[in-house]
Amino acid sequence: MGVPTLGCTCAVCTSTDPRNNRMRPSVAIRFHEASERNADARERLVLIDTGQEFRIQALRDHILRVDAVLYTHPHADHILGLDDLRPLTFKNATPTPLYADADTIATIRRIFDYTFRTENRYPTSARVELVEIPTVPGTTIDIHGVLFERVAVIHGRSEITGFRFGSAAYLTDMSDLSEDSIKRLANLDILILDALRREPHPSHSHLDKSIALAQRIGAKRTYFTHISHDLDHGPVSAELPAGIYLAYDGLRLEFEIA
Asked: What strands lie across the sheet with 128-132, from one edge to the other?
């Protein structure tokens, strides 16, 4: 629901710590084409999810183009900013690919029917195309020379999509991980993992469980995301084991992607 949460006057929602001001979670991944590792190589940008505040996030981080979007699942806080991709696609020579599993594609097509219809199409609709991600274990997507590997994530009663890219992985909206998925997360420098609140939740991991998973996976650095107003950034950060941190809006990390 974002923090501050509407209608709430708790200590976190009224906090003056800017790290307690949280838009809906997503990441932007910037890299240079793998075949052109030099000072003049073209920078690429891939998004994972476009939540309701995507426009605000793009303005804040000076996003001027998007080369592709990867979607984790079809819930509102992960897809409803799709329409704000429009001005970022107008100058592209080809439609911007939106990668998602079949269930997510079906929901996106239904909600954004006006974007994907072939007749009576609005002239300034986003220039995008939906590309289905197979759910076969080990599926990878090559985006300008970088491989994004699908990692299955359990989200309550559903299986959704997480991604590994080089030495980093992004697993939001996670209540559990299979043994196969844990094996696919070996030798990470950076792990970004769901940690909604302190108390258990039916479709999200809670703080103690996320700590245990992070320690089992063993990334050099783990950052918790999808954080509700139950977690106060300063005090909770002081409790966390070494190498585990709370993420915050605007956080920038460097890692090896190739």
From this structure: 27-32, 43-48, 68-70, 96-100, 128-132
Give the predicted TM-score (pTM) of the model.
0.95
Other C-beta atoms closer than 10 Å to the C-beta of 46 total 24
**Rounded CA separation 131/71 (Å):** 10
Please tell me the predicted confidence (pLDDT) of residue 41: 67
Give the pairing of strands 146-155 and 140-143. Answer: antiparallel
Q: What is the pLDDT of residue 40?
A: 55
168-171/68-70 β-pairing:
unpaired
Vertex 254: Cα angle to 253 and 255 (nearest 5): 125
- Evaluate whether 151 touches 162 at the Cβ level (below 8 Å): yes
DSSP SS3 for 194? strand
Instruction: Say if residue 245 is exposed, middle or buried (CB neighbours under 10 Å; 0-12, 13-18, 19+).
Output: middle
Give tens-digit pLDDT for 134-174.
999 999 999 999 999 999 999 999 999 999 999 999 999 99
For residues 22 and 44, the answer to whether their CB atoms sit within 8 Å is no
Q: State the Cα–Cα distance between residues 127 and 85, nearest whole angstrom.
A: 9
pLDDT digits (tens, 9 = 90+) for 183-219: 999 999 999 999 999 999 999 999 999 999 999 999 9
For residue 169, give the 3-state DSSP assignment.
strand
How many helices (H) and strands (E) the chain has is answered by 8, 12
Q: Which helix (H) or strand (E) holds 54?
A: helix 54-60
